[in-house]
Specification:
This protein is an alpha/beta fold. 38% of the residues lie in helices and 13% in strands. The longest helix has 24 residues. The protein is globular, with a radius of gyration of 21 Å.
């Protein structure tokens, strides 16, 4: 049995909507499907404003510009994250201050943030790992006390919640990903969520190459021109049409993924009880979206043996991030504050299991059977 790590979801109307977009003769962004996706996100997740972007990376870059990040500023984030989380701010000249993660959720340890704050700190970037929320009450309170921006890297957290509030809508800005590995996809794409209406117009200007084209199309100005720095962060209609079909099936996709996640959890719980491995943890008040199912082995040697074992049996189960602070670029543009007690340890032990919409119960059971087989004599 061959089981890949991921297969992009197809729910049925993608080709119909792409064909319709072509027939509308408007393939550039901010037309029917781009707007429809933004409105869906606003209504479904109660976002004040949502702007579709070409990637979550670009949504993060947009947020860095909107927060007026400058050379010499410092931005706090976990080291256990993707390079885009840091790149967006490094491109503006910021220094990244990495903070250790919690061993239970793999999220930034909220109790360590305050000690990382200096006079140069401008923003905090919580990353909601695997669609499980960071401790946003405490992070928001710290940000308010020190007058800092909060930019949620919610790449993995579309349709996940913290105390009933959609992730991505709690901070000043939230950044979604619709990459093909995410729960809802457009191949490559993302969205910027904006909490305060005062940032709406400037966000549209920066997204539209620094021009006030959006205001021109609304009749607010008689011509549009270059009024700010910006870039081309606006996706085309074909990608948005694919995404719109996915968003319309949010509940179907979410329920299926949660069922897969729960089947993994129930099947592997006995191994955790026997202290063979660790399973995901979801704190009270957090509603996750089954973006990922991971396990953590005893150490890196055991993980290597297990991944090789699974690979030989047709199962693709990759590890995840290499800590940014120990990477070549991370050591140049950032520093780690405090002790690295869990970041590198997690990076060495974590394995992601296959999880996608068309994964069958038979395939899930096969994966679990092979994991049990690996641990049988251990």
């Amino acid at each position: 049995m061959e089981i890949p790590f991921n297969i992009p979801a197809v729910v049925g109307n993608e080709l119909n909507y792409i064909s319709d977009a072509i027939n509308r003769r408007k393939l550039c962004g901010d037309n029917f499907y781009t707007k429809a996706c933004g409105e869906f996100i606003e209504n479904r997740f109660k976002a004040q404003k949502a702007l579709l972007t070409t990637s979550c990376t670009h949504a993060l870059e947009l947020s860095a510009i909107l927060c007026d990040i400058k050379p010499g500023d410092e931005v706090i984030m976990p080291s256990y994250t993707f390079s885009s989380s840091a790149n967006a701010f490094v491109l503006r000249g910021a220094k990244i201050v990495f903070v250790d993660i919690r061993p239970d959720t793999q999220n930034i340890d909220e109790k360590l943030i305050e000690q990382a704050i200096t006079k140069k700190t401008k923003a905090i970037v919580p990353v909601h790992y695997a669609g499980v929320a960071c401790e946003m009450d405490m992070i928001s309170e710290i940000a308010k006390q020190y007058n800092l921006y909060v930019i949620e890297d919610a790449a993995q957290a579309v349709n996940a919640y913290y105390k009933g509030q959609s992730l991505g809508t709690i901070g000043d800005f939230g950044c979604y990903s619709f990459h093909e590995t995410k729960n809802y996809t457009m191949g490559e794409g993302g969205a910027l969520l904006i909490r305060s209406p005062k940032n709406n117009i400037r966000s549209e200007i920066v997204r539209e190459k620094g021009t006030n084209r959006a205001q021109f199309l609304l009749g607010m100005v008689d011509k549009y021109t270059w009024v700010s720095i910006g870039s081309s962060y606006l996706p085309g209609e074909l990608n948005a049409a694919y995404l719109y079909a996915q968003l319309q099936n949010t509940d179907e996709i979410n329920n299926k993924r949660l069922n897969i996640w729960s089947r993994y959890y129930s099947a592997l719980k006995a191994l955790e009880n026997a202290e063979k491995l660790c399973l995901p943890f979801v704190p009270e008040g957090c509603q996750h979206n089954a973006h990922m199912f991971y396990i953590k082995t005893r150490d890196i040697e055991e993980r290597t043996r297990l991944t090789d074992f699974l690979h030989k049996r047709g199962i693709t189960a990759p590890f995840h991030y290499t800590p940014l602070h120990s990477s070549l670029q991370g050591s140049k543009c950032g520093r780690f504050c405090g002790e690295d007690n869990y970041t590198t340890d997690t990076s060495d032990r974590l394995i992601r299991l296959p999880l996608y919409l068309d994964l069958t119960y038979e395939q899930i059971d096969y994966v679990c059977e092979q994991i049990y087989a690996f641990y049988k004599d251990r």
